[in-house]
Design goal:
The complex is a heterotrimer of chains A (about 525), B (about 375) and C (about 350). Chain A is an alpha/beta fold. Chain A contains 18 helices and 20 strands. Chain B contains 13 helices and 2 strands. Classes of the chains: A alpha/beta (about 525), B mainly alpha (about 375), C mainly alpha (about 350).
């Protein structure tokens, strides 16, 4: 062979625990001077695979070759020594430091002195060579997300990386910033660097990459030259053929508007728009699915409805009770919602961070919803205990007891059963769930599907945020697709195809690209 | 190589065993040190150690009194610590409480005994609560660092007390108020002293009421934290602020309210110290016990009953040190060395209740999820 | 006019005392800044300063006792040697106390607040125990060492005094032992270290964002241990200075060192973790401690109110800093947190 590859992965397998195979016998090459897009749905194992190059994980089986030599990567330091620079989704920067200070952090300098002018000079050289816009003296806390990302990339270049791995770099960028990043990537390619970009936005793949490798459910599906690929062909590779799951979906009946959302806009703390003019209605008696790649605004949408996110002026969230009373939820915090008598239930994505108290046993976690029910100053106990017992019995929660062992120590499936059980126990009129079956086994997942359908039949408006398109298509009645904080389409689940949703998930509206 | 992993949980038996071992190890070290300093027969040392707290009836009352005041402060810290709010301002809260009690004792002694005592306690609680609410408010409002804030509040309180000690000084130039209502020839004699409610041997009665009252406070705090809505809210806020918000708990309100309670109980301890023990107020009425109580509250993991046990252990060591100091002609600060050693051991042993230490030769690849 | 002159003279006395206290506080605060910049909130500073104080006294007494016969033959070098030994003892003993704190909080991951408070109890106890026992041994004044530490250059003082007749600028600026100037030098050195060197940058990274520093390949434990121990050593010098300059190489069991130790903790906040701000902050705190000398009998108890001001100012700074949210003025972001990386 005339030219060795920058990186070769051979038969890499990585398991988490006994059951979960994150990467299953994956072999993949990265040529020198190419941009390889690693494409796949959430949970397809892209990040896990790359983390083995970055020294975060160590493969259970398989070999890694760099420039034709077999290597062992045990730590980020090792990875670095082999010239691999990984840019994670969560930046590792010190906020009160300048760009330059972050870039040289941890490097041995000459005589230990911090020679700021020479660092500045080198940073400027790198910036010029690849077309970055960077001010070495700007403090990180003053930077936009895209500027922080630039610092991260310059950091690995400053340290002499030959291979760059970017984990969903565009997830946090505006289209304009994305274009700039791609320009920089092309310059780096010209300079002979090899780049892997993890993404699930198809137009970006087509835009920037030379070759595409596709993973699906931990398996390597294949690779294609970007020049020969189309959005349709890539979607087919990424989502695969529709699989029948046989989820029971009784016909939605007597649907009434329960939650009407109009022009909902939400910004995060940095002022970045997370939801942009979202409008839809959730009906009592149906399951509304919400699809979208991770970080498209799902979390913010549910939190805004639950009273945990401040909405921008002009947003409207109306609640119509089964009796027909209308109420605006704008400006209400969760206690206001409870006090208004709205039976709104919410199964959040981050179970321990936002829905359960990990150090408390089951009963005390049930109390989170019932402790106010008792009159006087004492917190309710009996009701919570009875409810806990019922949930454990009905949902077959496996636990030594309900009032001693901290819930954190139960398995993920049992924890989720308790959370869902608690949330549906109040006979909610609105039930919102975010990734309710993430990390759960098949049986538990089906139990959760059935519980949601049961609520739907009781007339609740169920909002189901999911990531598995097969499930969304079989469980939900309608599916709303979010993309970049906007609604890119609402489809009828009975007639829609997987490809159709896949395309909606990855398509920004045209006018925003300009 | 040594591998350290976080424990998932620990059986209560093992955690008790680790602590008991630590205390025993510390006591042995104390014995060895005393032996080295004095060259006395170890048995004699042990006798003196135990004798410090249990040698005479008077010493037993002293032991109980000190244990109970320390417990009262520690229990006051429980709600703050339970919500992971670092209230290290107990010293100041207690002093302000003492000031509140003293004002009524000194100037309003004409009020009948029982109402006077109740008013004294109430004013002490209010003063302490205000002192606790201030840092709570600034934490809620602007997220001001509560550790440093409460720490500073201590010294402001000390200076305030010193100021009143100056303007109310008994003998000019002493900067001491002196015993209040202590002169038999005055009409105010024994007003505002808890024991005044009852006849008999004075000190013991005072101390007995003090012990009983603090026991009630301990049980009440335990019940408050365990059974009330507010207590439940404190626990949720302490574990996860986001979960609390999700459940409709207004976190800022809980901060201010709980700090009012925390400061109030510490202020009540100040009332007890003034009314039942010293009958005066000096800048050292708290005498560092506000800080000691922090250590005790921390070690007891916010369990009020355990606080009493740790407070008793601390007091035992303190009195043991004092007794040995006087028996072996060492100086008074000897007891601080001994209590320091015991605290270091008990603190250090927490590591083994939180982490597993294993020795393994093989480097294991991969990370478990 | 004479009233004004007597005011000036009491002003200069007050300033001299203020500088003495200020220097004690400055040493304490600088050591604490070094420790806190590495993320370790050491509330044991008062205890450490006590240990530094007793360490210096015991070291000086021992050395003077053991080598007194050499005094004549060494001449001017003997006091210098005494001072060096004394400083090494103060620094070393305080470092040992810091090592205890570091071991407990870094290796055994105990809570920093609680460990610091315990160290204060322990340090206060051990220092006063030894100090109190010194009386029964006999001679207790470390005269040679103390006099050497207090020594100043008389001609320089006289010359400047004669130039600035009524203001006694010479006495004000130069009638102090060398440690006053050493404290300022340490502050400047610390500023240089933290802002201008790579090691300083790494240390700040550890205190700000431990995980990021770890990922950048910085040895977290090494940095934390060293900053805590050296910081404790610097704080200990404050205790040494107090004993040798303010109380003349004697031991006096009083709560003053402890009070100055807490002022040092306050000063760190007041100076928003900046060594250069500490310099004037320390003298301001010192001045407030002695301010009542200037206006005696302003009202009864006014001294107590003035002495409250350092803490009150510190609180105001703390509130302002939280209010303005200027990132440079905030405490190090990882302050007080134990770091644990699960081994892979």
């Amino acid at each position: 062979m005339a030219q060795t590859n920058a990186i070769e992965l051979r038969h890499i397998t990585k398991r988490f625990g006994q059951k979960v195979i994150a990467n299953d016998d994956i072999s993949l090459d990265l040529h020198k001077g190419e941009i390889l897009a690693l494409l796949g749905e959430n949970g397809s194992g892209k990040t896990t695979l790359m983390n083995m190059l970055g020294g975060i994980y160590f493969p259970d089986e398989g070999q890694i070759f760099i420039d034709g030599e077999e290597v062992t990567i045990r730590s980020p330091k090792d990875s670095f020594r082999y010239g691999i620079g990984m840019i994670h989704q969560h930046f590792k920067l010190v906020d009160v430091f300048t760009a330059a200070e972050n870039i040289v952090l941890g490097l041995e300098g000459e005589k230990g002195k911090l020679d700021k002018s020479s660092i500045r000079k080198t940073v400027r050289e790198i910036a010029e060579r690849y077309g970055f816009e960077i001010d070495p003296d700007q403090k990180v806390y003053d930077m936009s997300v895209s500027q922080k990302q630039t610092v991260e990339i310059v950091k690995v270049l400053y340290r002499g990386a030959n291979v760059l791995i970017l984990d969903e770099p565009t997830a946090v960028l505006t289209p304009q910033e994305t274009d700039k990043l791609f320009a920089v990537m092309r310059n780096m390619k010209k300079d002979g660097k090899a780049i892997i970009i993890i993404t699930h936005k198809l137009h970006e793949v087509l835009d920037v990459s030379d070759r595409v490798a596709v993973l699906r459910k931990g398996k390597y599906i294949g690779d294609v030259e970007t020049a020969t690929a189309t959005q349709q062909s890539l979607t087919d590779m990424m989502v695969g053929r529709a699989v029948s799951l046989n989820i029971d979906r009784p016909k939605a009946e007597k649907c009434v508007e329960r939650l009407v959302v109009n022009n909902l806009t939400v910004r995060d703390k940095e002022g970045v728009k997370k939801l942009d003019n979202v409008s839809f209605a959730a009906m009592g008696g149906e399951i509304l699915g919400i699809a979208g790649v991770a970080g498209s605004g799902q979390k913010e949408l549910l939190e805004a409805i639950a009273g945990l996110q401040p909405e921008e002026p002009g947003s409207e969230i109306r609640y119509i009770s089964p009796e027909g009373n209308e109420m605006s939820l704008i400006g209400m915090d969760p206690l206001d919602i409870i006090n208004a008598g709205i039976l709104l239930s919410f199964v959040p994505e981050d179970r321990f961070g936002a829905g359960l108290v990990g150090s408390m046993p089951i009963v005390d976690n049930i109390k989170l919803r019932t402790y106010r029910d008792h009159k006087g100053i004492l917190a309710d106990r009996a009701k919570a205990q009875a409810l806990a017992d019922r949930i454990v019995l009905d949902l077959e929660v496996v636990t030594p007891n309900t009032n001693v062992i901290p819930i954190r120590r139960l398995s993920g499936g049992n924890v989720q059963k308790v959370l869902v059980g608690r949330e549906i126990s109040s006979s909610p009129t609105v039930l919102m769930t975010a990734y309710a079956v993430r990390g759960l086994d098949i049986n538990t997942s089906y139990m959760i599907y059935n519980l949601l359908t049961e609520q739907k039949m009781k007339g609740a408006a169920v909002i189901y945020v999911g990531e598995d398109l097969d499930v969304l298509l079989e469980l939900c009645d309608r599916i709303m697709v979010l993309c970049g904080g906007q609604v890119s389409g609402i489809v009828d689940a009975a007639t829609a195809t997987k490809e159709e949703i896949g395309l909606l998930m990855t398509q920004f509206r045209r006018e925003d690209k300009a | 190589m040594i591998r350290i992993t976080k424990r998932d949980g620990i059986s209560s038996l093992l955690s008790v065993a680790i602590r008991v071992l630590a205390v025993i190890a510390a006591l042995i070290l104390c014995l060895v040190i005393t032996f080295l300093f004095t060259g006395r027969d170890p048995l004699r040392v042990i006798t003196e150690m135990v004798g410090g707290s249990f040698g005479t009836t008077k010493r037993m009352w002293e032991f109980l009194q000190r244990t109970m005041i320390l417990s009262c402060i520690a229990v006051g810290l429980a709600p703050a610590f339970k919500m992971h709010f670092w209230n290290i301002g107990a010293e100041g809260q207690m002093l302000m409480g003492g000031l509140g009690a003293l004002i009524l004792m000194k100037f309003c002694w004409t009020i009948p005994s029982l109402p006077l005592l109740i008013l004294m306690a109430l004013l002490a609680i209010v003063f302490g609560a205000i002192w606790g609410m201030i840092p709570g408010f600034f934490k809620a409002k602007w997220n001001a660092n509560e550790t440093l804030f409460t720490l500073m509040m201590n010294y402001i309180a000390i200076q305030i007390v010193l100021y009143f000690c100056t303007i109310w000084e008994g003998t000019v130039g002493t900067v001491k108020i002196g015993i209040v209502n202590g002169k038999a020839e005055e009409a105010a004699y024994h007003k505002g002293w808890i024991g005044e409610l009852f006849t008999g041997n004075f000190n013991d009665k005072d101390y007995m009421w003090l012990v009983l009252i603090v026991l009630v406070v301990v049980v009440a705090m335990w019940a408050y934290l365990r059974y009330t809505k507010q207590g439940y809210e404190i626990s949720v806020v302490g574990d996860s602020v986001n979960t609390a918000k999700y459940a409709g708990i207004r976190v800022n309100k809980v901060y201010v309210r709980s700090m009012a309670i925390s400061g109030g109980v510490c202020g009540f301890a100040g009332f007890l110290a003034v009314s039942a023990v010293s009958r005066t107020l000096t800048e050292s009425t708290a005498d560092g016990r506000g800080f000691t109580a922090i250590i005790i509250a921390w070690l007891a993991h916010t369990n009020p009953y355990l606080m009493v046990i740790f407070a008793a252990l601390y007091t035992f060591m303190e009195l043991a040190g004092k007794q040995m100091a006087s028996a072996f002609q060492l100086n008074d600060y000897y007891s601080k060395i001994l209590t320091g050693i015991v605290l270091f051991f008990v603190l250090g042993c927490e590591f083994f209740t939180n982490y597993k230490v294993r020795f393994s030769k093989k480097h294991k690849g991969g990370a478990a999820k | 006019m004479s009233g004004f002159l007597s005011f000036l003279s009491s002003f200069s006395t007050t300033l001299t005392f203020s500088i003495t206290f200020g220097t004690v506080i400055l040493f304490g605060a600088l050591g604490e800044i070094l420790s806190e910049k590495g993320g370790n909130l050491n509330l044991g500073v008062p205890g450490i300063m006590y240990i530094g104080a007793i360490g210096s006294l015991v070291g000086a007494l021992w050395f003077q006792g053991a080598t007194g016969s050499l005094a004549g033959s060494l001449g001017i070098f003997y006091p210098i040697l005494c001072v060096i030994v004394c400083l090494i003892f103060a620094f070393g003993m305080a470092m040992l106390a810091g090592l205890l704190f570091a071991y407990l909080t870094i290796s055994l991951r105990t809570n920093q607040n609680v460990t610091g408070l315990t160290l204060t109890i322990f340090g206060t106890g051990i220092a006063n125990y030894i100090g109190g026992s010194l009386g029964s041994v006999g001679t207790v004044r470390a005269d040679v060492t103390s006099d050497a530490i207090k020594a100043y250059i008389t001609p320089l003082v006289k010359w400047l005094d004669s130039l600035t007749d009524k203001f006694n600028l010479g006495s004000l600026l130069f009638r102090h032992g060398f440690m006053v100037y050493l404290a300022i030098l340490v502050a400047i050195a610390l500023w240089y270290f933290l802002t201008k060197t790579r090691t300083g940058l790494s240390l700040r990274a550890v205190g700000e964002n431990t995980a990021t520093a770890d990922a950048a390949g910085i040895n977290i434990n090494k940095y934390k241990y060293l900053s805590t121990c050296i910081g404790a050593g610097i704080s200990g010098l404050g205790g040494c200075f107090y004993v040798m300059e303010y109380i003349d190489g004697l031991w006096e069991t009083s709560a003053t060192i402890g009070a100055l130790g807490w002022l040092a903790v306050a000063l760190v906040i007041f100076a928003t973790w900046k060594p250069m701000r500490c310099i004037w902050g320390a003298y301001l705190f010192g001045l407030l401690s002695w301010f009542y000398f200037l206006v005696p009998g302003l009202f009864k108890g006014s001294d107590k109110i003035f002495q409250m001001l350092p803490y009150l100012f510190t609180l105001l700074v703390l509130i302002l800093v939280s209010l303005r949210r200027k990132p440079e003025d905030q405490p190090p972001a990882s302050l007080g947190k134990a770091y644990f990386r699960e081994e892979r």
